[in-house]
C-alpha cells in the first residue's frame, strides 16, 4: 500500500499516482521510435493513451443534501446486505459492495464527512475482486470514520486480481468532507462500505454508481 498526498481538487485531469506510469510509458515510446521500432512505438503509444485515460480524475457534482451518503467509487453494486458482525466496526451494519472494472474511474471518494478514527492495512491475496472471498482474503485498507452527528462507518479498499497498489491520502485524525478524494486502487478492484443499520438505502445490486455523485443512502 502506498500512503501519499495529492490535491483535494483536480488541478490536473490525471490522478497523481498515475503520473509515474504515464511518464514511464512516454519514455518507452520515445525509445522505441528513436530505435526505429515503429510497430513497438505505435503499440507503446496506445498503451500510453490508455494510461492517461485510466488515471483520469474528473471533478464531480456533489449532492447538496448533508444527510446523503455517496458512492466511494465508480462501478457496479455487487451486493447490499445486513451483516451482524465485521472486523472493522463492533456492531451490526449494512454492507454495500462495489466492483470497479478496468474501464471505471479509479479515484476513491469519502462516502460521508467525518473524522478518521483509524486506518488499518491488511496484507493478503489477490483473488478476483468480484468474488465474495475477496472481502476477507485480499489485500485491503480500511478506514473507520465518525461523523459530526456520531455516525460511525467504515470504507474498505480491496485489491483485486490485477490491482496491486492501494493508494491512500489520509491519516488517522484527518477530517474529511463528503465526496472528497482520498485514494485510489490501480487497475481494477473493489470498495465496500459498512454503514449504520438505520441508513435509508438508495441503491440496489446491479446498479451502476459514480464516485461522489451517486447517493447510496441517507443518514439522519
Strand content: 25-35%
By CATH, the superfamily of the largest domain comes out as: Glucose Permease (Domain IIA)
Question: How many structural domains are formed by the residues?
Answer: 2
CATH architecture of the largest domain: Distorted Sandwich
Radius of gyration: 18 Å
Oligomer: single chain
Which characteristics define this entry?
single chain; disordered N terminus; Glucose Permease (Domain IIA); four-stranded mixed beta sheet; 3 helices; alpha+beta
How would you characterize this protein structure?
Helix 1 (19-34) runs antiparallel to helix 2 (38-54). The protein has helices at 19-34, 38-54, 134-137, and strands spanning 2-3, 68-70, 75-83, 93-100, 107-109, 114-122, 140-146, 152-159, 166-168, 175-176, 181-185, 189-196, 200-201, 208-209, 215-218. The chain has 220 residues and is an alpha+beta fold. Residues 2-6 have low confidence and may be disordered. A hairpin with a 5-residue loop joins strand 7 and strand 8. The chain has an 8-stranded antiparallel sheet, with no helix packed on it. A 4-stranded mixed sheet has the order 1-9-11-5, with no helix packed on it. A 3-stranded antiparallel sheet has the order 2-15-13, with no helix packed on it. The protein has 3 helices and 15 strands. The protein folds into 2 domains: 16-54; 68-218, Glucose Permease (Domain IIA) (Distorted Sandwich), CATH 2.70.70.10.
Amino acid at each position: 500500500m502506498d500512503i501519499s498526498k495529492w490535491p483535494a481538487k483536480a488541478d490536473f485531469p490525471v490522478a497523481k499516482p498515475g503520473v509515474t506510469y504515464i511518464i514511464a510509458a512516454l519514455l518507452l515510446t520515445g525509445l522505441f521510435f528513436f530505435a526505429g521500432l515503429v510497430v513497438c512505438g505505435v503499440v507503446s503509444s496506445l498503451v500510453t493513451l490508455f494510461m492517461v485515460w485510466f488515471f483520469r480524475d474528473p471533478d464531480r457534482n456533489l449532492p447538496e443534501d448533508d444527510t446523503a451518503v455517496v458512492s466511494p467509487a465508480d462501478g457496479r453494486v455487487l451486493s447490499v446486505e445486513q451483516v451482524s458482525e465485521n472486523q472493522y466496526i463492533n456492531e451490526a451494519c449494512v454492507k454495500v459492495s462495489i466492483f470497479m472494472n478496468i474501464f471505471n474511474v479509479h479515484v476513491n471518494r469519502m462516502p460521508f464527512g467525518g473524522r478518521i478514527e483509524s486506518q488499518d492495512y491488511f496484507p493478503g491475496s489477490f483473488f478476483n475482486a468480484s468474488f465474495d472471498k475477496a472481502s476477507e482474503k485480499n489485500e485491503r485498507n480500511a478506514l473507520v470514520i465518525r461523523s459530526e452527528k456520531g455516525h460511525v462507518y467504515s470504507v474498505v479498499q480491496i485489491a483485486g486480481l490485477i490491482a496491486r497498489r492501494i493508494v491512500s491520502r489520509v491519516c488517522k485524525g484527518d477530517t474529511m468532507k463528503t465526496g472528497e478524494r482520498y485514494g485510489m486502487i490501480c487497475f481494477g478492484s473493489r470498495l465496500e462500505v459498512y454503514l449504520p443499520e438505520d441508513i435509508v438505502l438508495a441503491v440496489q445490486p446491479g446498479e451502476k454508481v459514480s464516485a461522489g455523485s451517486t447517493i447510496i443512502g441517507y443518514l439522519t
